[in-house]
Every structure is written in structure tokens, then in C-alpha cells.
Amino acid sequence: MSQGQVSTRAFATLSDPGYFPGLWALLNSIYAYHGDELRVFVFSYGLTNAQCARLGLHPLTIEVISCDALPFHPKGAWEAKQQIMGQLIPKARCVYLLDCDLVLTSRVDDVFAAAESGKIVSSTDGAGIDFGNSYRPHYTFEGFHRNARQ
Fold first, then answer.
1. pLDDT tens digits for 76-113?
2. How far apart are CA 14 and CA 88, in angstroms?
3. Do 16 and 45 touch, CB atoms closer than 8 A?
4. Is 44 helix (H, G, I), strand (E, B) or coil?
5. Residue 12: count of CB within 10 angstroms of its CB
6. How far is it, in rounded angstroms, from Cα 71 to Cα 74?
7. Side by side, which strands form the sheet with 92-97?
8. Distance between CA 13 and CA 18 in Å, rounded?
9. Cβ 59 vs Cβ 32: under 8 Å
């Protein structure tokens, strides 16, 4: 698919120079499960020229977009990530935004389908989640492990 066309589905991620090995692993996993059928956008938060050149050698067609091109200058990668979806509106209808230190372990057509049906598909990003005591394991005096839901 040419860079000027609007895709139905696409992957996007953001990386700085320190996360490049993770980025490469993510790209390899996208290629392993989806081949080159979907567009891939990498937002560069200071990737080196050598790293950007290496992205051009990957079997995926990767569009690198500098975070300097974002409308609000980000103070960090997290702030830059908040602007990615807005930047991709003219380029893709459904975008799977992944942290660059993740890898796919299967195809993710179900995630795209849920989003395309109008569902908001998201996880948290930041400090994590506390589900409360009902999700913590409890031990009896005998050492038996069970999940208590109180």
C-alpha cells in the first residue's frame, strides 16, 4: 500500500534510541503474524540516523514520523504518544498503538474487529492497576492456596 493511501488497519508505535532493540522485536513479531499486509508507523522520539536507516531494511514497509512534527512539542515519549492517534486520522481508519517493548504472540484480527465494531479497545498506561484484596491470593493455616472473593 502506498504511503498516500488511507489504510483500513495499521500498527503504530513510538521509540527512542534506547528502545530500538525492543522496537525491532515488535516489528519482527508484526511481520511474523501479519506479513506486510498492514501499514506500520514508527514515531521517532530521537531515533538516530543509523536506526532510521536500519528500519528501511526491515521487510515491513515502515513509515517513520518524527515526534518533532507533532503539533504540540512533547516533553517526553509519553506526551508524544498521546498525539499519535490524531496524527494518523488521515492515514488509517483503525490503528493498533503498541508500546515498542511488546511483541505479538498471535494475529490480532480480533482486536482490530472489536475496534471496528465501535468498541474502545485499550489498556492502562502508567502506574498500573490495583484490583483490591479480592484478587490477591489468601492462604489458610494449612497453606492451601485459594482465591478468595469477598
1. 888 999 999 999 999 999 999 999 999 999 999 999 99
2. 13
3. yes
4. strand
5. 22
6. 9
7. 62-66, 39-44, 7-15, 92-97
8. 14
9. no
Contact (Cβ atoms closer than 8 angstroms) between residue 107 and residue 34: yes
Question: By three-state DSSP, how is residue 84 classified?
Answer: helix
| In the block, residue with C-alpha cell 514515531 | 43
- Please list the helix, strand and coil fractions of the chain in percent, rounded to the nearest 5, in that order: 35, 20, 45
- d(CA 3, CA 61) in angstroms, rounded, equals 9
Cell triple for 103: 511483541
Strands 137-139 and 145-147: antiparallel
pLDDT one-digit tens code per residue, 14-57:
999 999 999 999 999 999 999 999 999 999 999 999 999 999 99
Grid coordinates of 117:
465494531
Using CB atoms within 10 Å of the CB of residue 112, give its burial: 0 to 12 exposed, 13 to 18 middle, 19+ buried. buried
